[in-house]
Amino acid sequence: MTLFSLNAQQLHYPETRMSDQKDIYFGHEIADPYRWLEDDNSPETAAWVEAQNALSSSYLSKIPYREALRQRLEKIWNYPKMGIPFKKGGRYFFYKNDGLQNQSVLYVQNSLGEDARILLDPNTFSADGTVALADISPSPNGKYLAYTISRGGSDWNEIAVMNLETGQMLPDTIVWVKFSGISWYKNGFYYSCYDAPAKGQALSGSNEYHKVKYHELGTPQENDLLVYQDSEHPLRNFSAYVTDDEAFMLLSETESTSGNSLFVKDLNQMNSDFVQIAPGFAFDYDVVDNVNGKLLMVTTDGAPMKQVVWVDPRHPEKENWKVVIPETEHVLESVSLAGDYIVAKYLEDANNKVYFFDLDGKKIRQLELPALGTVAGFSGDKNDPMAFYAFTSFTFPSTIYQLDVNTGVSILFAQSNVDFDPKSYVTKQVFFSSKDGTKVPMFIVHKIGLNMDGNNPLLLYGYGGFDISVTPSFSVARLPFLEQGGIYVSVNLRGGGEYGKAWHKAGQQMNKQNVFDDFIEAAEYLISKKYTNPQKLAIMGGSNGGLLVGAVMTQRPELFKVAIPIVGVLDMLRYQYFTIGWAWAADYGRSDDNEEMFKYLLAYSPLHNVKKGVQYPATLAITADHDDRVVPAHTFKFISELQRNQKGSNPILVRVETQAGHGAGKPTSKAIEENTDVYSFIMYNLGMKPAF
Question: Residue 43, SS3?
Fold first, then answer.
C-alpha cells in the first residue's frame, strides 16, 4: 500500500494506557491520565516510545520522495563551514566543519599567516558523533585550554583541561557542571555546578542549589573551593566572570531567564568581599570588561532599550554610574570592545545595525553591511585593532569578515560555497496588524516570480518569548522547500526582544495570549494577501516555539494543515517541576501561584485544550530522549491526547530521537535525518510533488 491511500483512520496508533491520576488546583480537579509517561526510566515508557517511533518510521518511509529529499539535503549540506576566529593567549582559535562531519573541529594557529592545526576533534569522542564539544576557554597565559563536553545532547557538561604547549591532557575532570562558563584566574578557573542528582533523576529532576566553585589545576574536584551558594534560595543560578586583567570577579545571580543581580569582588584585595553593584531581578546588568579600572556595563535599568554605563567598582552605587552610550529608540542587542572602540550592535525592525563609539561615547561610524540581516561577533580584543564578525540572512550563507576597527574597513575572510543561487530568491519584510491593533513585522522569503494565487505551500515559523529576538538566518535545511516553490515566513511575535522590554512584557504571563494572537493574525494576513490558504499552510516552532505551535493548533485547528511542534513546552500546569523549568516562571507564571494564573495557563495549555471530535492539523512532534531542558514527557502526553481525540484523515505522529537533547551538539547525520523526516512530512501533507 502506498502512502497516497494511507490516512489517519488506517493508522493504528499504539495503545496508551490512561490512569486515574487527578490533581487539585485551587479546588479545580484536573485529570492527568498520562502522568506515567513522565518517568523517563520506565520500561513502559520505553516501550511506548519504541512503538511510536516504529509507526512514524513506517509512515515516513512510504513518502515517495523521502529518499530523494535526503540525498538533496546531504548534497547541499556538504560544504565547508567555518566559525568566527578569536584570539586568546596569543593564539587564534576557530571551528571548522569540512561538510558532513558530525561535529565541527577546533583548530588553532599562532598567527593568521601560518597553517592551522587540529586542536580538538570531537568526532573522535564517540563513534556516532553524539558526544559534543560544548564550550572552550583558553587560559589568558596561553598555556591551557579548558573545555566542556556534552553527551547525547544533555545540558549536563564535563570539564577537561589540555596543555596547549604539549597537547597532553591533564588529569583534571569536573563533572555535574550545568549552565556554566569557565573563567580563568591564576592557576585555575571558576565554574558553576549542581550536586550530583539522585539516581535516575539526571534528565528530569529539578535543578536546585546552584553553586560557583574554583578549581585549581592538578587537584581533585572534591577539593574545589566553594565560592558562592545561597542555601535559602534553591531556585537561583549563579555565574562568575573574571575580567581579562584578572582584577575583578563579577558574580551574576538569576532566578529566571531575564533580570539579574550583580556583585563585584576586587581580586587584588586580599579577602575582599562581594559588593553589590545592582539588586535583582527587575533589570539586566552585564559587564563587558574592565578598562582602566572602570567596568563597562550594559543595562536595562532606567533604559528599557538598554544603555551603556561606566561603573567604578570601588564606588559601584547607581548614583555614581556614568552613561557613556544613552538609550535610543532601537534595542541595543550587544556590546563588545575592539581596539580602542566600543562596538554596539542594535536591532532595527529585527535586523542588525552596527555602530562604533569611542570610550567617551562619541559615535565614530556605522559598519557597512551587505544586506538586511544578522551580525554575529565581534571577536576582538580591547588591545587589538583587528576583529572578526559574521553576517547572514535568509538567502545569504554565513560569511566571515576581518575588520580593521581603526578604519572601519572589512575584508572577506571566509565564505560558504553552497549549492544554491541566492539571486533566484527574494526576501521582504511586511507589517500586519494583530488582533489588538499592534503592528507586527515578519520576513517573507520565496522564489522570484512565484505566482501569488493563494495556492502556494507556506511554512510559518515563530518563537515569541524570553526576550529572544528572531532575526534573519540562513538554513540549509529549508532550501529544498524553497526550491520546490515553498514560501518561508518568519514572524517577530511579542514576547521576543525585537522592540525591547515592552515588547517582551507584552507576551509574558497574563499577556501570553498576545503571542498566539500575533501568530494567528500572521496566518490570516498571509491568506488574505493570497500567499497561501489553510490547506497549504504549515507551522513550526521549537521549545517555547513548540508551545506556540501547540497553542495555536488547538485554538485554531482549521487554520493550519500541518503542525511541527519541536521540543515544545506543552503541559503548562507542570512544566516547573522538571529540571530548569522553574526558571521560566517569569515568562509563563505558575499554576500553583494563584487561581487566576492557574486558570489563565489552563486556558491555553496545549495538553489541556485538545477536544474530542476535532480535526487537528497533520502533526509531527519532535523530541529527544536526552532533552533535559524541556523534558520529552511534554510531547509524549500531548501526542497521546491528540491521538486519542483526533477526527479525520490528518496523521498524528511523534519522532523521538535517541542520544540527542534540546538541540545543541546534534551531529550532522542526525540533523540531516531529522530534517528529511520533517520536510518530507510537510511537503507530503501540503500536497507538494517535488521534482528532485
Answer: helix
Could you tell me the strand order of the sheet in which 294-299 lies? 285-291, 294-299, 307-311, 322-325
281 cis-preceded (ω within 30 degrees of 0): yes
Asked if residue 154 lies in contact with residue 175, where contact means CB atoms within 8 angstroms, the answer is no
Q: State the first-to-last Cα distance of the chain, in angstroms, to the nearest integer.
A: 23
Decide if 170 contacts 163 (C-beta within 8 A): yes
Between CA 289 and CA 298, with CA 294 as vertex, the angle to 5 degrees is: 55
Each residue of 85-112: b (16+ CB within 10 Å) or e? bbbbeebbbbbbbeeebbbbbbbbbeee
C-alpha distances in Å from residue 162, one per residue of 36, 113, 119, 212, 401: 44, 24, 10, 22, 29
Instruction: Return the domain boundaries, the chain.
Output: 38-75+420-685, 81-242
Does the annotation count 543 as an active-site position? yes
Helix, strand or coil for residue 560?
Answer: coil
**What is the architecture of the domain spanning 81-242?**
7 Propeller (2.130)
The neighbour count for residue 42, using CB atoms within 10 Å, is: 13
Backbone angle region of 249, left / alpha / beta, with phi > 0 → left and psi within -120 to 50 → alpha: beta
38-75+420-685 is a CATH 3.40.50.1820 domain: yes
**Is 165 in a helix, a strand, or coil?**
coil
The whole-angstrom separation of Cα 628 and Cα 113 is 42
Rounded to 10 degrees, the C-alpha dihedral 318/324/328/333 comes to -90
Active-site entry in 137, 543, 605, 680: 543
- Give the integer Cα–Cα distance in Å for 270 and 273: 9
For 70-110, list the strands marked E by DSSP: 81-82, 86-88, 91-97, 105-109
Q: pTM, whole model, 2 decimals?
A: 0.95
DSSP bridge pairs for 441? 431
Please determine whether the domains at 38-75+420-685 and 81-242 fall in the same fold group of CATH.
Answer: no
Residue 662 annotated in active site: yes
The helix (run of H) or strand (run of E) holding residue 440 is strand 439-447
Q: Please tell me the distance from the alpha carbon of residue 256 to that of residue 582, in angstroms, as a whole number.
A: 8
Instruction: Give the sign of the dihedral formed by CA 509, CA 513, CA 518, CA 519.
Output: positive
Going from the C-alpha of 200 to that of each of 74, 109, 204, 330, 520, the distances in angstroms are 37, 43, 8, 47, 40
Q: Cα angle vertex 403, ends 397, 406, to 5°?
A: 155
| Mean pLDDT, the chain cut into blocks of 10 residues (692 residues total) | 50 96 98 97 95 97 97 97 93 96 96 92 94 95 96 95 95 97 97 96 94 98 96 96 95 95 94 93 96 97 97 95 98 95 96 96 96 90 89 96 94 93 96 98 98 98 97 97 98 98 97 98 98 98 98 98 98 97 96 98 98 97 91 97 96 92 88 98 97 87
Instruction: Extract the C-alpha cell encoding 241.
Output: 566572570
Q: Is the dihedral of CA 145, 149, 155, 158 positive or negative?
A: negative
Question: What count of Cα atoms within 13 Å lies in the side-chain half-sphere of residue 594?
Answer: 4
371 by Cβ neighbours in 10 Å (0-12 / 13-18 / 19+) ranks as: middle
Contact 618, 651 (CB under 8 A): yes
The C-alpha cell that represents 101 in the structure block: 562531519
User: DSSP letters of 299-353?
Assistant: E-TT-TT-EEEEEBTTB--GGG-EEEE---SSEEEEEEEETTEEEEEEEETTEEE
Residues 6 or more apart in contact with residue 28 via CB below 8 angstroms: 598, 602
Task: For the chain, give the number of residues.
Answer: 692
